[in-house]
Design goal:
This protein has 2 domains: about 120 residues, no CATH class; about 120 residues, no CATH class. The protein is about 60% helix and about 5% strand. It has 15 helices and 4 strands. The strands form 2 sheets. The protein has a two-stranded antiparallel ribbon with strand order 1-2. A two-stranded parallel sheet has the order 3-4. Helix 12 crosses helix 13.
Length: about 250
Amino acid sequence: MTTTDPNAPLARFCLTLEEFRRSPDGRVRAEREFVSHFFAYDANEATDIVFRHLPREVRGPILSAWKIRGQKTAVRDDDAKVKEAVHDALVSGDIDALTFETGIAADVLIRWVPLSDWWSFWRGGNLSERAILKALSTGYELGLFDAHWFLTTLEAGAESKGGIEVLSEGLSKADLTEWLRTVHQGGDGSPKGLVLALGWEKIVHHTKPPILIAVLDALASKTGLTKSSATAAPEAGAADPLDAVFMN
């Protein structure tokens, strides 16, 4: 049984997004979608992609807290018995979607479930501006990408426009003036200086969502959250433009 180092930057990135996803401001996918992804079921069968990854000593207390298995038996149950017990509880209504999501804490999910499974769940939601902002700012802060990679990846997904053009085309004259003034005062015209002078909030607010989501997909490829074999700019995975749905 494998586990993810909770201190690794990628794990911290995923945990931050999952914790944010469970908050009112960051909610990307509903509790029922959490169930349908990690424990899809109907009246007759279920597909478990969460409990089978959890050690018995981790999943046992979850089942006993739900009162669907005793404390001792829950720890002894094999994968098949756990799936049966959870399936029966969901079908009978003994536990609901909110109970299911709450019972599997964010840190437990990120530590034990393959991060690629979690990413496909998070990425499959309608990504709000706040969710995109959280993902980009967190990834940057944790060193998963730098400003040069970001600008180059923007360019790769923006139909022959440069990264600076992509950032500037949605800005008002006042925003552009402020940006140039900040760059001049800081004396740093490097990619890092340009990105920090504009700030992630303005970048996300004024850049077309499909372009930013394409950057997130490139980041997922770059960090191994997806298994895409495409390549893009130097030091990065490919950024394929997507017709993503954006919700404010």
